[in-house]
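My main concern about presentation is that the manuscript never shows what a single data entry looks like. An entry of this sort, consisting of the sequence and the corresponding C-alpha cells, reads as follows:
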Amino acid sequence: LTVTDINVTSANIFWSPGSDETSWEIAIQSAGTGIPTGNGMATTSNNPYPAANLNANTMYEVYVRGDCTNGDMSNWAGPVNFTTLVDSRTVFIQQDISVSGYDLAVVDMNGDYLDDIVGVSSTSINIHQQNGSGFDEMTISTDQADHLPTWSLSAADFDGNGKTDLLYGGGGGVTLMKANNDGTFFTEQSTSEFVFSQRSNFIDINNDGHLDAFVCHDVEPNVYFINDGLGNFTYYQTSVTTGSMYDLGNYPSGGDYGSIWIDYDNDRDMDLFISKCGGEEARRTNQMHTNTNGVYSENAAALNLDDPMQTWSSAWGDFDNDGDMDLFVGASSGTHKLMRNNGAPNYTFTDVTAGAGISAPTGWESACYDIDNDGFLDIISNGSIMYGKGDLTYEDTDTSQLNYKNGSFGDLNDDGFIDAYYTDKIYFNSPNANEWVKIVTVGTLSNKNGIGARVEVHSASGVRIRDVRSGEGFEFMSTLNTHVGLGTDSSIEKIVIYWPSGTIDTIMNPNTKTTHVVVEGSSLSIADEALTDLIIFPNPTASVINFESQNDLSDMIVTIFDTQGKRVFNEKLKSLTIDVTALSSGPYILRLESDGKTTIRKFIKQ
C-alpha cells in the first residue's frame, strides 16, 4: 500500500491485490482515526486509485481491504499516512536538467543578460546557457583548479571584458578563474595560503572601480584580494598580512560563515555584515563593518546587531518598503531573528521577530526575493518561502516546493519571475498577472556589473530599493540582475541608480514587464539646484569646507570628484563642516545629494 503524486487536494493510491481480488473498499480519513469500524468506499481501481477533493495541508491515513467474493472482506491493510501540500500562492514546475560538477550558480556567463546554470570541476566549467526557448549546453576548459568550491562559489566580471569570472571557496584555499575575452578558456590564480573558506563575495572594497574579492575564514581572520585593474589579485589577511589596509573580521579563530555586502545606512557605500557561528560567545557574535568614506569599523553593538546566535547566513532587503534595508538572520540552530532598520539618523535595529509569522526550519541558507511579484519582498529560508505583507509580517508559508538548501535563484526562462535551481533540477516559477521590471547594471567608471549600486524603482505604490550584490546566502551564487515586483502598478515613474563611482542615472517612465540594460552615465541626472542659496567656504581651502544654507542639510550625502570624474570623498553630512585635508591640491567638484536631487559646487584645494 503506497501513496504517490501527493498534491494540494489529490493523491494516487496503489496496492497489490490478493490472488482473486477484483474489488476493494478504501477508507481515507484523518490521521489517527484508527481501523475503520464500518464500510469503506467501494472501488475496482487499484492502479492507481485517484483520491480527490482532499483538504490542503492535512494529514490523512489510508486503509484498504479486498472483497473475497460472496461478500466476505479481508482484514484492513494499513494505515499509510500522507500529508497534502500547502495551497501555495506560487506554483513551481520542476524540470530535470543534467549539470556536471559543483552546480552552485545561476548567473549570466556570456554577457547576453540572461541567467545561465553553472557547474564547475577541476579542469572545466559546464554551462547551460539560455537561448530563448531552453538551454544550450557547453563545457569550457580551464587551468587545473588548485581548490574547488566545496564551501561557496561567487561570480562577477572582475577584469571588465564582458565575460563572467568565478571564485571557488575551498576548504584549504581560494581559486580565482578568469575568462578570456571570448569566453573559451579560463586561467586560474590560487592562494598558496591556507584558507578554510566559507561565504565568498565580489565587491569593490577600495572603490577604485575594480572588483575585489572577500572570503570568510572559518578558523582564522578573514581574507580579501585587491584587484590591480587587470584581474590580478593581491592576497591580504585582516590584521595578519603586512600592509593589510582593512579590518574586515579579525577574530583569531574565525567563526565567520556568511558575509553579505549591503548599504544599510543609505550613504552610498557598501557595508559588510558577517553571520558567525561556533565556539565561545565572542567567536559567534555577529559583526557589522560600517564603511565610512573607505574606512571600515566594526560597530554591531551600537546597532543592536551583536547577537551571539548560531547563524550561517542572513537575508537583507527593504521588507517594509520604507527606504532602508532590514535584516533576517537565519539560525543554524536556535531561533531565527527579524530585525527592523529604524532609519535615519542612526540606522539602529529593533528585534521584531515576535508576531511576525516567521516560520522556517533551521539551516544554512537565507535569501530574499519577491517571488510572486506583489511588490513585497519574501524570505526564503532553508526551502521555506515566507510571503511578505510589506509590514515586516509574513503569511502563507510554503514549505513543500523548494529544496531544503534553497539553491541558486535567477530568471531561467526570462519571464520576469524568479526561479530556483538545485542539483539537476530547475524550479520554474509559474507567472501571475503582477507587474515587474528587471534592471541590468553595466558599469563604466564603476565595476562592469555595477556591484554595489543602489537601484530605486519609483511607482504609484511607493519606492522599492535593491542593492546589486555578488554572493548571498551561504553557499550558492545567484543572479546579478536586479528584479523588482510591482504588484498592480502598471507604470513606473522612474528608475534611479546610484553607482559606486558616485554617478547617478535616472530613467524616466520606463516600461514594466521589460528588462532595462542601463549603462552607467547614459542618462545622467541633471543638477536640480534645489539649494540655490548654498554657499561653501573658504574657497580655495587648505583643510576644511564649511556649508551655509537656509535649508536643513543634515544627512545629505557629500560626494567630491576630481577632474577625471573619480569619486575621492563620500560621506553623510553630520555637521556643516567637512575635512578635505587628505585631498591633493587642485580643482574639485562637490555634490550634495538627497533623494536623487543634487546641487553642484566647484572648489579648489590648496
Observations:
- The mean pLDDT is 95.
- Residues 8 and 47 are 20 Å apart (CA to CA).
- The chain has four domains: 2-84, 91-437, 438-467+482-519, 535-605.
